[in-house]
């Protein structure tokens, strides 16, 4: 088992639904520790930069508009196999395909408004954590 860190975002729809604490509770019960955290209303530039890998995809503009439609809560999570464990807690991208009991099954409304983001690899996790948090804002340092 490997101690990992991953980047998690509670998207504007879930923030609006007032389930920040519910989602944090699921992380903690699964053994993931919040090691960095902040609420932020992303600028268009910040959202485009974060999702730059999807720039050529047909859903890119809608994804960016959704991500700037309200504040998000951004956190780095640490734990054993954190990247995969977090993806399992989130469930499938489309809530229609998400397993019962996952965050997206319980709180997502559509493939666009799908409640949460999670890094998809250890390599991307490091890039995404650094995108939002200087190393001095992740604890322990
Ligand atoms: P995320 O990056 O947000 O954690 O989601 P993911 O890995 O499960 O999905 P990804 O393929 O990385 O897509 C990023 C976000 O774009 C939206 N999307 N829409 N209409 C579509 O076909 C479509 N495909 C993806 C979703 O909101 C997804 O979370
Ligand atoms: Mg993704």
UniProtKB/TrEMBL annotation:
Catalytic-site annotation from UniProt: 117 (pros-phosphohistidine intermediate)
Q: Which cofactor does it need?
A: Mg(2+)
The segment(s) forming the Nucleoside diphosphate kinase-like domain are 3-140
Which is a Gene Ontology cellular component entry for this protein? cytoplasm
User: Could you say which residues bind ATP here?
Assistant: 11, 59, 87, 93, 104, 114
Q: Name one GO biological process term.
A: CTP biosynthetic process
Which reaction(s) does the protein catalyse, per the Swiss-Prot or TrEMBL entry? Answer: a 2'-deoxyribonucleoside 5'-diphosphate + ATP = a 2'-deoxyribonucleoside 5'-triphosphate + ADP; a ribonucleoside 5'-diphosphate + ATP = a ribonucleoside 5'-triphosphate + ADP
Task: State its Enzyme Commission number(s).
Answer: 2.7.4.6
Enzyme type, top EC level: transferase
User: What is the recorded name of this protein?
Assistant: Nucleoside diphosphate kinase
> What gene name is given for the protein in this entry?
ndk
């Amino acid at each position: 088992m490997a101690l990992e860190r991953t980047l998690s975002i509670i998207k504007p729809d879930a923030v609006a639904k007032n389930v920040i604490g519910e989602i944090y509770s699921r992380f903690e019960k699964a053994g993931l520790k919040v090691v960095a955290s902040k609420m932020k209303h992303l600028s268009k530039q910040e959202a485009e930069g974060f999702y730059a890998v999807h720039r050529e995809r047909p859903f890119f503009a809608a994804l960016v508009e959704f991500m700037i439609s309200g504040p998000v809560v951004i956190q780095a999570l640490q734990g054993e196999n954190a990247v995969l464990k977090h993806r399992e807690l989130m469930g499938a991208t489309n809530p229609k395909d998400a397993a019962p009991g996952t965050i997206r099954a319980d709180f997502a409304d559509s493939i666009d408004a799908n409640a949460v983001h999670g890094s998809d690899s250890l390599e991307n996790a490091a890039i995404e954590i650094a995108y939002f948090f200087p190393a001095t804002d992740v604890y322990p340092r």
